[in-house]
Design a protein that fits this description.
Length: 182
Amino acid sequence: MFTTTTSRIILSIFILASILWLGMSVARLAVGYDVFVPGTIQLKSKLTKPVLLQTIWLYTSLGMWTLISFAVSAVSGLVTILLMRGHYKRYGWLFMSAVLFLIVLPAQGYLIDADLLLWSFFDYQTGMPLAQPQQIVDVFLRRFSNQVIGIVSPLVLLSGITIVLFTTMRPLHNVLAENESR
């Protein structure tokens, strides 16, 4: 299926970047939701402002790693989709993965746009806040209380996991057509 060295390299880059993107997304969720009382969007009462700001900075810096790995994944994924367009009839799992990936692109772009505002409140080299602490906390809380983000974020993560499952389990893989083409 992947006959050229170039297509194998691009696919390898896509897989590595996607693994980093999904891993960073899960790490961000763990860090971000750690400041809230479980089941609510209320901050834990024992958190001090410096600890809260450091957690928000960690969440934000993980967001930049997520953005970079997603950008690499998006470019290499689009190239892979174009290179593999002739194989969609034989490999249904490849077609389903491509469709899911194309749906994820604008959704993840929306999430990245929401993260860039938070990123602008910190010095990216030192992690020092560039805005008032309360302003940073307010933007962070709005990020988690936004219903659209609350719906889109888990759907993007689940779509990414589904793409991984499609590529490993390969449903709708037409073995007969593959054997005939040899």
